[in-house]
Design goal:
The chain is mostly beta strands. The protein has one domain. Strand 2 and strand 3 form a beta hairpin.
Length: 100
């Protein structure tokens, strides 16, 4: 089972993997499966795969299995530090793109 999310606003891959998310307990998970355009974030327990496009922007965020990536998603968009724009914490900055 997997769930995929698509950002509603541009998110730069570099912003997710420059170390700024470590302050909130999220960091890059190094794996043999990672590539320049597909990387993984973890909170130490859960994982969220991030796909980037040729422009260096996030194109897809994917959760596999029974992962609960809410903490990672909150770290990405919750504080407005990484996601452009500001709003209430209830305004989605990404949309669910389906599951399978």
């Amino acid at each position: 089972m997997s769930t995929h999310f698509r950002p509603l606003t541009p998110i730069r891959m570099a912003d997710l993997f420059d170390g700024r998310l470590k302050d909130v307990g999220v960091h890059e998970h190094h794996s043999k499966e990672t590539t320049a355009n597909q990387k993984c974030l973890t909170d130490g327990r859960n994982f969220l795969w991030i796909d980037g496009d040729e422009k260096g922007l996030v194109s897809l965020l994917s959760r596999y299995g029974m992962n609960a990536p809410q903490r990672i998603l909150q770290a990405i968009c919750g504080g407005g530090e990484v996601c452009p724009g500001r709003g209430t914490r209830h305004q989605a900055r990404y949309e669910r793109n389906g599951s399978g």
